[in-house]
Amino acid sequence: MIKISKVVPFQSAVRAIANFISEGNFRFNEKGLSFKAIDPSQIVLVSYRADKSFFEEFDVEPNLVGLDIDELNKVVKRASGSDKLELDLEDSYLRITIKGSLIRNFRLPLIDVLEDEPEVPEQDYDASVEIEARVLQEALKDASLFGSSVIFRIENSRLFIEARGSQGTLKTEAKQGELVKIKSKADVVSKYSLNFLENIVREAEPGNRILLELKSEAPMRISYNIGPANIQFHLAHMIL
Q: I need a labelling partner for 81 at 20 to 30 A (CA). Which of 24, 56, 159, 226 fits?
């Protein structure tokens, strides 16, 4: 039995996963809950971890539970912020109980997800940027006016976000400051899918910090906290 009183961050985490993954395995063990999967296009790897302390109650046997993530998302978003969630295994089903002014019981069938759990790649990055989510989200909205891809460039401890298309170009500069912290041991330039990146940062609270770790023409690691839990994405680069 698992009891969740922090409903909103759990809903956000499921939405963030469902943006890319339609089905996958949730791993339950003595440390908590985790999820790792690669989207069907092989562009983004999603890794989510919620420690045992995230839950009001966490009494489970180690288990690997395969679920349709889209269906899970539909169910958990029916809860309001003041409700509580209970998760429990019943035969070949996951029972989800939403407790509030009403008590609602949902049962989702378990499915066999045959893909092996992916290894999170180890990468030596040349630069890292800690940026307030709102600042990055707005910069990406600007970039979407002109292109379907975005270039991240780090030069002399300054971050440039660039986009170009037939309708025009954008070059945004973010300097070191309260909202942006940049560390680099080398200049970096790399290109990424704008649509994927917008979906990655969508569930970050505007005032939270997002960590970007970059290397020229290499995948980018994006991570941030959703409540007390952490979600991480590895986004494949595009050819410049």
A: 24
Q: What is the pTM of this model?
A: 0.94
- pLDDT category of residue 240 using cuts at 50, 70 and 90: confident
Q: Which fold has domain 2-34+51-109?
A: Proliferating Cell Nuclear Antigen (3.70.10)
| Cβ partners under 8 Å of residue 61, min gap 6 | 28
Task: Please name the fold of domain 127-235.
Answer: DNA Polymerase III; Chain A, domain 2 (3.10.150)
Q: Kindly state the average pLDDT of the residues 215-240.
A: 96
What tokens does 98 get? 């939403």
Neighbouring residues of 190: CB distance < 8 A, sequence distance ≥ 6: 151, 152, 214, 215, 216, 217, 218, 220, 237, 240
- Given a contact cutoff of 8 angstroms between Cβ atoms, the answer to whether 206 and 134 are in contact is yes
Instruction: Compute the distance between CA of residue 220 and CA of residue 224 in angstroms, rounded to an integer.
Output: 13
Looking at residue 198, the DSSP 8-state letter turns out to be H
